[in-house]
TrEMBL record:
<dbReference type="Pfam" id="PF00005">
    <property type="entry name" value="ABC_tran"/>
</dbReference>
<dbReference type="GO" id="GO:0016887">
    <property type="term" value="F:ATP hydrolysis activity"/>
</dbReference>
<dbReference type="GO" id="GO:0005524">
    <property type="term" value="F:ATP binding"/>
</dbReference>
<dbReference type="InterPro" id="IPR050166">
    <property type="entry name" value="ABC_transporter_ATP-bind"/>
</dbReference>
<keyword id="KW-0547">Nucleotide-binding</keyword>
<dbReference type="InterPro" id="IPR027417">
    <property type="entry name" value="P-loop_NTPase"/>
</dbReference>
<keyword id="KW-1003">Cell membrane</keyword>
<dbReference type="InterPro" id="IPR003439">
    <property type="entry name" value="ABC_transporter-like_ATP-bd"/>
</dbReference>
<keyword id="KW-0472">Membrane</keyword>
<feature type="domain" description="ABC transporter">
    <location>
        <begin position="15"/>
        <end position="231"/>
    </location>
</feature>
<protein>
    <submittedName>
        <fullName>Aliphatic sulfonates import ATP-binding protein SsuB</fullName>
    </submittedName>
</protein>
<keyword id="KW-0067">ATP-binding</keyword>
<keyword id="KW-1278">Translocase</keyword>
<comment type="similarity">
    <text>Belongs to the ABC transporter superfamily.</text>
</comment>
<dbReference type="InterPro" id="IPR017871">
    <property type="entry name" value="ABC_transporter-like_CS"/>
</dbReference>
<keyword id="KW-0614">Plasmid</keyword>
<keyword id="KW-0813">Transport</keyword>
């Protein structure tokens, strides 16, 4: 049976999930998962490949009509989704991609402002194929944020970018989220990315959220901070990855 799926009722929560199930054939990917995300909270979701991270995100995004369970799935109406590939319409310019569905001069103005916020001022008339991968992802972020979402769902948004561009995108996302304060669920493989950005980190394994860790380090986060290293070791252990230090112990 599909869970009771509806718009959010509580003002202080951006996500309220109870008893979410998802099976593919005989395989249970999400096994009675519960989760609350507060307004403005930045949550990262880690898990091994195939653990069901994207399945979970799609359920929250309302993109999976076959989720099961008898519980609750409440998300805000104004949510945005960003994927690993920017998914821009190649036959529309950058500004047209950002303002799609936004009417009139106010929409244009909001689109220009969003593009300036992601560092693409002056590129409004460019075509997607004239942009680098990182720039295309900036457009995808602008397209999401121009709608002022209460919830941003991001599925490996920087997974296809080189390491340097990814670090720049971390700074940008951190700034944008500090300014606009959407709740965020960021799916990532990258433990350091999760620790750099999130207020809270979840680990999904065998259908369950086996870790729910609050990150209280100051931002921007210093990768050399021993507390950062300790959290990394803890998360890698939850992911079943042995670090050299642990092996020696
Ligand atoms: N539509 C589908 N039909 C059948 N099986 C599916 C479907 N979608 C996902 N799966 C299976 O569900 C499991 C979880 O997939 P999912 O993409 O959610 O994992 P993930 O944690 O996001 O993986 P990755 O990190 O590799 O992207 C996988 O075993 C996958 O093969």
């Amino acid at each position: 049976m599909a869970p009771h799926s509806s718009q959010l009722k509580s003002a202080s929560r951006a996500v309220h999930v109870r008893n979410l199930m998802r099976r593919f054939a005989t395989k249970t990917i999400l096994d009675r998962v519960d989760l609350d995300i507060a307004e403005g909270e930045f949550v990262a979701l880690l898990g091994r490949s195939g653990s069901g991270k994207s399945t979970f995100l799609k359920a929250l995004a309302g993109l999976d009509h076959d989720v099961q369970g008898t519980g609750t799935l409440e998300t805000p109406e104004n949510l945005s989704v960003v994927f690993q590939d920017a998914r821009l319409l190649p036959w529309r310019t950058v500004i047209q991609n950002v303002t799609l569905g936004l009417p009139g001069p106010a929409g244009q103005e909001a689109g220009r402002k969003a593009l300036a916020e992601v560092g693409l001022e002056g590129r409004e008339a460019a075509w997607p194929n004239q942009l680098s991968g990182g720039e295309q992802q900036r457009v995808a972020l602008a397209r999401s944020l121009v709608r002022q979402p209460s919830l941003l769902l991001a599925d490996e948004p920087f997974g296809a970018l080189d390491a340097l561009t990814r670090l720049k995108m971390h700074d940008l996302l951190r700034e944008l989220c500090a300014r606009h304060r959407p709740a965020v669920l960021l799916v990532t493989h990258d433990v350091d990315e999760a620790i750099s950005l999130a207020d809270r980190i979840l680990v999904l394994d065998e259908g369950h959220l086996i870790e729910d860790l609050r990150i209280d380090l100051p931002t921007p986060r210093d990768h050399g901070d021993p507390r950062f290293a300790k959290i990394r070791t803890q998360l890698l252990s939850r992911l079943g990855v042995e670090t050299p230090g642990r092996r020696a112990a």
